[in-house]
């Protein structure tokens, strides 16, 4: 039979729901809209959105190897947070039991009142830990989803079919992919310099020249190729926009104009 700990997510969720019933603040005097907003503030998912994880955590890493490695680091970080929160829940529940025992043995009404305040404070703290736990589980799932997508799209495999997980603990392969990462990363950074200032900045050029001659040439080729491609794309977009405006298309200069409709997001 599978050995299950009493502090798994399911039991934690049940205790959290019970705590909410016991410790929720009063909503007397609030209209229905205010109550709805309050409930939304407490229970809305404030985790890192999947879109941000995919593009600004994952794709920011330049190469599939670096992206895979970053996702592993993020997953480990969330798992360690979950482990700590589960332990904190166990400790907090034990602390509440101690306070309840002390409350039962209080010798005077004043001491009993202080213990009651301690009980309220610790129960509120427990609710907050449960909220953080729920958030940590959701973020872990988002990063696992991003990793699963790499496998579904084939991005988690090298051209020869090697699984990137087999690269992570292979020093020789890791070194080769680190070299590829930095050549491309520095090349892209140099390309951004070219696009914004017309030349490669001192810092990026200095970093590029720290590598071997072959790597310097490779990075500079990446810089020129990438900057030319982006410039060409921008010129094409600009040309199309000018044509559309010349044809009398309506346009809106408001920065907060929606880029897409809800239907387009589906």
Explain this structure:
With 266 residues, the protein is mainly α. It has 2 domains: 9-153, no CATH class; 170-247. The protein has helices spanning 9-23, 32-43, 50-58, 64-104, 109-153, 165-168, 171-197, 202-208, 213-246, 262-265. The longest helix has 45 residues, at 109-153. It is elongated and about 80 Å long.
Order of helices and strands: HHHHHHHHHH
Helix content estimate: over 70%
Let me know the largest β-sheet. none
Uncertain spans: 1-10
Return the average pLDDT rounded to an integer: 85
Number of helices: 10
Classification by helices and strands: mainly alpha
Report the β-strand fraction as a percent range: under 5%
Termini separation comes to 43 Å
Total number of domains: 2
Number of strands: 0
Taken from the alpha-carbon principal axes, the silhouette is elongated
Short précis:
The chain has ten helices and no strands. The protein is mainly alpha-helical and 266 residues long. The radius of gyration is 27 Å and the shape is elongated.
Task: Offer a few descriptive terms.
disordered N terminus, 0% strand, 2 domains, 266 residues
């Amino acid at each position: 039979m599978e050995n299950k700990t009493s502090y798994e997510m399911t039991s934690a969720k049940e205790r959290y729901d019970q705590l909410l019933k016991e410790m929720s603040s009063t909503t007397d005097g609030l209209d229905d809209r205010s109550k709805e907003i309050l409930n939304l503030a407490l229970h809305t998912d404030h985790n890192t959105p999947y879109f941000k994880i995919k593009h600004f955590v994952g794709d920011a890493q330049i190469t599939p190897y670096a992206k895979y490695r970053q996702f592993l680091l993020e997953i480990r970080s969330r798992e360690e947070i979950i482990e700590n929160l589960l332990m904190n829940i166990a400790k907090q529940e034990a602390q509440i039991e101690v306070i309840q025992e002390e409350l039962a043995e209080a010798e005077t009404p004043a001491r009993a009142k202080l213990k009651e305040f301690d009980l309220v404070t610790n129960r509120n703290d427990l609710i907050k830990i449960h909220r953080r736990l729920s958030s940590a589980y959701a973020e872990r799932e988002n990063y696992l989803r991003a990793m699963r997508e790499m496998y579904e799209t084939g991005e988690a495999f090298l051209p020869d079919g090697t699984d990137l997980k087999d690269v992570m603990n292979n020093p020789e392969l890791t070194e080769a992919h680190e070299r590829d990462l930095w050549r491309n990363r520095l090349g892209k950074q140099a390309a951004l310099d070219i696009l914004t200032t017309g030349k490669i900045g001192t810092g990026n050029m200095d970093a590029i020249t720290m590598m071997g001659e072959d790597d310097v040439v490779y990075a500079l080729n990446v810089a020129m190729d990438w900057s030319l491609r982006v410039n060409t794309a921008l010129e094409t977009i600009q040309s199309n926009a000018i044509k559309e405006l010349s044809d009398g298309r309506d346009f809106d200069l408001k920065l907060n104009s929606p880029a897409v409709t809800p239907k387009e997001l589906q």
